[in-house]
Amino acid sequence: MALIKCPECGAQVSELARACPNCGYAFGAVTVEGADEKKGVIQGVVVNDINMTFSSMVSFMIKWALATIPAAIILAGIFFFLTGFFAWLMARM
Ligand SMILES: [Zn+2]
Predict the structure, then answer these.
(1) In whole angstroms, what is the distance from residue 12 CA to residue 6 CA?
(2) Greatest CA separation for the chain
(3) Which helix (H) or strand (E) holds 3?
(4) CA distance to 81, 82, 83, 91, 92, per residue, from 87 (Å)
């Protein structure tokens, strides 16, 4: 059982106590609410981050695929042109 410090009077109080026995400050409910809010914020940020990363990754892959198709056609054209050119050179030699 851990001890926490009362924010009102600074006394060492059991974490299971809902109020400080020294000054009567009710910190239990406030601490739980704060923790839940922090968890919600963290989860929301994580979920938003995953969604943004996934959608940006999909759009990046689509753009990459669209940019790759003409590049692949050009590269294939150059490749076949060079192989045909060298085949024509070899045939002449
Ligand atoms: Zn206190």
Answers:
(1) 6
(2) 103
(3) strand 3-5
(4) 10, 8, 6, 6, 9
Q: Report residue 23: phi and psi, to 5°.
A: -120, -10
Ligand 1 (single-atom ion) residues, CB below 5 Å: 6, 8-9, 11, 20, 22-23, 25
Q: What is the pLDDT along the chain (93 residues), one digit of tens a residue?
A: 688 888 889 999 888 888 888 998 887 554 445 555 555 555 555 555 666 677 888 888 899 989 888 899 999 999 999 999 999 999 987
**CA 10–ligand 1 middle distance (angstroms):** 6
